[in-house]
Design brief:
six-stranded mixed β-sheet, RbsD_FucU, globular, isomerase, alpha/beta, L-fucose mutarotase activity, 156 residues, RbsD-like fold
Length: 156
């Protein structure tokens, strides 16, 4: 049964995960190509499947209930475009613009403090960071470089 104020896209399993996460815990939102199960196995965490769901739609629902960490410089991480793929994207993967429309934290532009809230991590460094996640949410997103790591903040 739906809850008031909670997007119906958020499953009971995902809501439980988000509620259990503490300040500083991370959530991986993975595209369809991401090695979600092997990363989750290394992290000792679960995978929640959202097959067929595109990332911007799920991200919007999650961001409506998840506080973002305000005590760290970059509470959001994206996988940096590989040099071999740089010519495909001008200047960034189109999916990143979709993220910025969902929530201002995803803007790659600098904030009023002069720093971006988004950290771009090289592929292997992104995988290592994902291995420390509380949970991995595997979506049906097919766009390249759609993976996100979000650090939870304090709900005040």
């Amino acid at each position: 049964m739906p809850l008031l104020g909670i997007p119906s896209l958020l499953s009971p399993e995902l809501l439980k995960c988000l509620a259990e996460m503490g300040h500083g815990d991370t959530l991986v939102l993975a595209d369809a190509h991401f090695p979600s199960h092997s990363i989750a196995q290394k992290a000792g965490c679960s995978v929640i499947r959202y097959d067929g769901v595109e990332m911007p739609q799920l991200l919007e629902a999650i961001m409506s209930v998840l506080p973002i960490d305000t005590y760290i410089e970059s509470p959001i991480a994206l996988m940096q475009v590989e040099p071999s793929d740089a010519d495909k994207f001008s200047p960034n993967p189109p999916i990143w613009s979709d993220y910025a429309k969902v929530h201002p934290h995803f803007s790659l532009l600098t904030s009023s403090s002069g720093k971006s809230r988004v950290q771009l991590l090289p592929r292997e460094q992104f995988y290592r960071a994902a291995e420390r996640a509380y949970c991995v949410v595997h979506t049906g997103e097919l766009a390249q470089y759609a993976n996100i790591i979000i650090t939870k903040g304090v709900a005040i």
